[in-house]
From TrEMBL:
Residue(s) carrying N6-(pyridoxal phosphate)lysine: 36
Gene3D superfamilies, alphabetized: Alanine racemase
Annotated function: Pyridoxal 5'-phosphate (PLP)-binding protein, which is involved in PLP homeostasis.
Keyword tags: Pyridoxal phosphate
Organism name: Alkanindiges illinoisensis
Xref: PANTHER family: PROLINE SYNTHETASE CO-TRANSCRIBED BACTERIAL HOMOLOG PROTEIN, PYRIDOXAL PHOSPHATE HOMEOSTASIS PROTEIN
HAMAP family: PLP_homeostasis
Annotated InterPro entries: Ala_racemase_N, PLP-binding_barrel, PyrdxlP_homeostasis
Family per record: Belongs to the pyridoxal phosphate-binding protein YggS/PROSC family.
Source species, domain of life: Bacteria
Listed cofactors: pyridoxal 5'-phosphate
Name of the molecule in the record: Pyridoxal phosphate homeostasis protein
Alanine racemase N-terminal domain mapped to chain residues: 14-224
GO MF terms, alphabetically ordered: pyridoxal phosphate binding
Length: 230
């Protein structure tokens, strides 16, 4: 087993243990590998270990990796903040966009999504605990945003993404409450199935609260002084 396969299995085991502890199904929590700053050959090695979902924060870096890895069947998630001048390449080159917090961004993504591609999966980023340094809409804005974004032709609205303050595990429960409240009034409730929260240090708490997708970088890839297997 390669180092990447071992690290991935260790994370999956943590996810499985957290699911078992909280009476949840292991298959209901997805692992998103946060691969920012890691070169394409590392993603290729992680894919060989079984990982298909990758999350990127920086657009130009991600586009370069996509070009180098176009022979692989990968699912690309953009998890950084979405700027208006970046929506066109995001709409054309990603499967998921997590950092949507304004209607204008969703509208641009929908309009700019190429006709030959499936609708773009998006999550609304919510500043769940009111951090000055974090992007995202306030919780009170979510219901109206959901109603508006649900009507866009080339968007598939999937759920919420949150990044609470460290050790603020109560925020995970708040996000789950908001997620459930919105699901009850969503135009397409079957699509509303993704609660993206939890990272390397707090994935167990996030899963206990109801996360369906954990974003793991350091614990999965390790430090950047790795050696690739030849």
């Amino acid at each position: 087993m390669t180092d990447f396969a071992l690290k991935r299995q260790q994370i999956l085991s943590k996810i499985e243990a957290a699911c078992k502890k909280n009476a949840r199904k292991f298959e209901d929590v997805q692992l998103l590998a946060v691969s920012k700053t890691h070169p394409a050959e590392v993603l290729r090695a992680m894919h060989a270990a079984g990982q298909c979902r990758f999350g990127e924060n920086y657009l130009q870096e991600a586009l370069s990796k996509q070009e180098q890895l176009q022979d692989l069947d990968l699912e690309w998630h953009f998890i950084g903040h979405v700027q208006r001048n970046k929506t066109k390449p995001l709409a054309a080159h990603f499967d998921w966009v997590h950092g949507v917090d304004r209607l204008i961004i969703a509208e641009r993504l929908s309009t700019q999504r190429p006709e030959n591609l499936k609708p773009l999966n998006i999550c609304i980023q919510v500043n769940i605990d009111g951090q000055d340094s974090k992007d995202g809409c306030v919780p009170a804005e979510v219901p109206e945003l959901v109603q508006q974004i649900s009507q866009l032709a080339n968007i598939r609205l999937r759920g919420l993404m949150v990044i609470p303050k460290p050790d603020n595990t109560v925020a995970f429960a708040d996000a789950k409450t908001l997620f459930d409240e919105v699901k009850a009034q969503h135009t397409n409730p079957d699509d509303w199935n993704t609660l993206s929260m939890g990272m390397s240090g707090d994935l167990e708490d996030a899963i206990a609260a109801g996360s369906t997708m954990v974003r793991v970088g350091t614990a999965l890839f390790g430090a950047r002084d790795y050696k690739l297997d030849k």
